[in-house]
Amino acid sequence: MTYQPQNDFGTPESRSDETVSLTIDGRNVTVPAGTSVMRAAAEKGTSIPKLCATDSVKSFGSCRLCLVEIDGRRGTPASCTTPVEPGMVVRTQTPHLAKLRKGVMELYISDHPLDCLTCAANGDCELQDQAGAVGLRDVRYDVQATHLGQEKDHSNPYFDFDPSKCIACSRCIRACDEVQGTLALTMEGRGWGSKISAGLASDNFLESECVSCGACVQACPTATLVEKKVVEVGTPERSVVTTCAYCGVGCTFRAEMRGEQLVRMVPYKDGKANRGHSCVKGRFAWGYAQHQERILKPMIRKSISDPWREVEWDEAFAYTASELKRISAKYGRNALGGITSSRCTNEETFLVQKLIRAGFGNNNVDTCARVCHSPTGYGLKTTFGTSAGTQDFDSVEDTDVILIIGANPTDGHPVFASRMKRRLRGQDGRPGAKLIVIDPRRTDIVRSPHIEAQHHLPLRPGTNVAVLTAMAHVIVTEGLADEAFIRERCDWDEYSHWAEFVSQARNSPENLQPVTLVDAEELRAAARLYATGGNGAIYYGLGVTEHSQGSSTVMAIANLAMATGNIGRRGVGVNPLRGQNNVQGACDMGSFPHELAGYRHISDGNARKLFEDDWGVTLDPEPGLRIPNMLDAAVDGVFKALYCQGEDILQSDPNTAHVSAGLAAMECVIVHDLFLNETANYAHIFLPGSTFLEKNGTFTNAERRIQPVRKVMTPMNGLEDWEVTQRLAQAMGLDWNYTHPSEIMDEIARLTPTFAGVSFARLDEVGSLQWPVTADAPDGSPIMHVDGFVRGKGKFVVTDYVPTDEKTGPRFPLLLTTGRILSQYNVGAQTRRTENVAWHPEDLLEIHPVDAEDRGVKSGDWVKLASRAGETTLRATVTDRVAPGVVYTTFHHAVTQANVVTTDFSDWATNCPEYKVTAVQISASNGPTEWQEEYEALSTRSRRVETGIAAE
Amino acid sequence: MNSVERLVHMANQIATNLATDAAPVAAVADHIQQFWDPRMKKMIFAHGTAGLSPVAAAAISLLADAQNGA
Q1: What does the domain layout of chain B look like in residue ranges?
Q2: Between chains, do B34 and A636 touch, taking CB under 8 Å as contact?
Q3: ipTM of the complex
């Protein structure tokens, strides 16, 4: 297919149920009421010339190019701002209109450079197209004053701004306002002096508040805002629709290609998760895929003190299989295990867990979701009956009260945050939703342009359960519970038991205030708002799960939603915001040691038999080891081999010293990844991985949406990741013969009732499907628990607040909590290898001015961050965004090693690490700690490749 | 913490969090049965009840008896 940009209908779609019929150029057209004449024409394939209109933003009516004639109306109204009316008769092409349009275009072109042949947008420029469409052949004006010849702004690493090419249509400003919601751009000056400005006149794009989401670049009709890559390589010649491999929002993109070269990733307007929007990571930060540090050949070594030796794939598989068999024979089959990746596809994840269960002969399989959302699995399964968010993202459009707890969506889930912010701002006369934020930090969404949270509850880290129980106390004791809903949908006795518990005086906001540090009146007001403000929806992240009471907090959230009847329809629900692209999928695919695909316990004989019959093996009915248990067993000398696909446990898991001791005690660590990551320092076998651009498969996002990932280029390492796992399984003697990932999905569908109706053919047909996809719901299930909970009756669980064992004291008086930043992703393996380092070159420690002053710390100073587990150094930034007594940092940079400091305390139910609460002390420092220096030396030593050239 | 100490800590943590369950001993036993691998169970059975809270100790005894009876 040759390159075509996506259709632009000029103005946004109308959601009205009413329809209107009219005549455009003699043809009858029927469209929803509220549709513009421009859009009505475009839907019939009639293209009315336009410049200032694009369908991602509201109509503006400034360019005067889209004029039409309407019977019975005077003059020539702009079709973008004129809504359709019944019986309207519209003409889009008349001699009079042609003359007017040509005049308008002539004015535009009189102040535009005529360098089309050498312009980056040549062939993909709306101004050029419209000049052609109106038949402009000559410009009569001899203009003395122009706005040409201005300096370009190259500061943004991904796009250029050339003010001379600007036609002042303000599409970029409106995209920033309406789509992204950052309001970074404005129009400065008047007349010839009009200029798009990113903040103050002194700001360039990089230094401004611009978050580099790309919405302005996409909206720009000329080459004023253009991707640097397009400037470098030219316009694309084909496109493939695929799914982003960053966060759990799961944005759909068009990968726009020249041959096998990726030119740009453009958000796909028909993507149901992102609705045409993107963030800096998905839109621009894909350079890691071709980064020079990618390892493209398998490598092996006997000992981690040896340099790596490159080998061919055949030797790598034979050696790996022989090592695994040797260890199994010597130490027993339970000495082997593996970790699936939430970055890999459903199909790859399914194969890894199948290899472990059917090939290794045990259930020692876990996934990186262990360290993020395993409490969601436990908590939502216990209360609702299945481990998944209850809503689709569109649901937020009908929400009246948004409650965010332990999540920072503008940084962690930026594209969904933009949709949230749109709802919070209100639109077209509809008031915005109300906002409650429960977070120790004043995250950006608490107060941002046109948005202010009604209630921000800055709780002490580790007291989520106490805060939620206090909210429940208010709801129950003030008679705000939805008893009709509870009687119909939940177990009344369990509710009564729970209501009696939360009503106890010890659970009142006033009584818990000394523990939570949350003002009791503010908490009461927040609880009342959530219970009585209309549709209430809870969105939560790792600030909920990564605690010693993570699972309890998830259940406390579910309790609140059930008690207020906020489940089972649009606008409400309980919504975990998943960290990585395929956390949901990895969990669905049977990656946990106690569960087969579809959340069926391994001790369930019927479920096991289904798999045993299909796979021709006998499965162990006992649960296997979770990641922390594997590391403990390794230190004990009984766990000896690990196949780790797409996860860097040494950097991402807590208490680095313990992780490294566990890895060092193993005889065969197999790392299957793109780069020599930190875990690879302890690996004996490295199997090079493929990127999301190089393989076929599916990802499942936070709204249970299964979406296709499509191969747009040949894997640089030679094999897609599912092929690597299959070849390893074959070398182990398993008779696997998949020829395409679609066959793996067929097997998943065969064995997993909630995936029964999923296939690649069906996904190609409809774009995406939200599980459950069953005979009853062949088109999937946007909202869950509509007519009843999956488990039958919703279960209220008493969640008593239990303080964490991680205590502050004289030696460690501050609480450290960790999180992410917009421009970086997770352990940074991908984003650190892109230009995103321009925004976040290092991890910084946020510290409150009072705590900083007590310690003589200023912004920019190096400080030592010490806990009971270990110590590291990084630079401080002094800010009142954190409360006194709380410090915060990100964990994106290997050199910082924030997890040297975090402890191995974990969630009581799932062993999800307690990353969010570590007692620490801060002191001045003048250099790296001993650990950092030793680790640096180990990394350098460990990354040697036999050719003598260090790989990293 | 060595592995046994960690298992004791985990069992106590489970017991504390399930203390409000209608039948806490059975709930703790069921949780450990469902989520601990056989070696972890064997280790805590061998360790006995030292350091365990009364509910955790009763749950471990219940599980050990069931295992031995089986």
Answers
A1: 3-69
A2: no
A3: 0.96
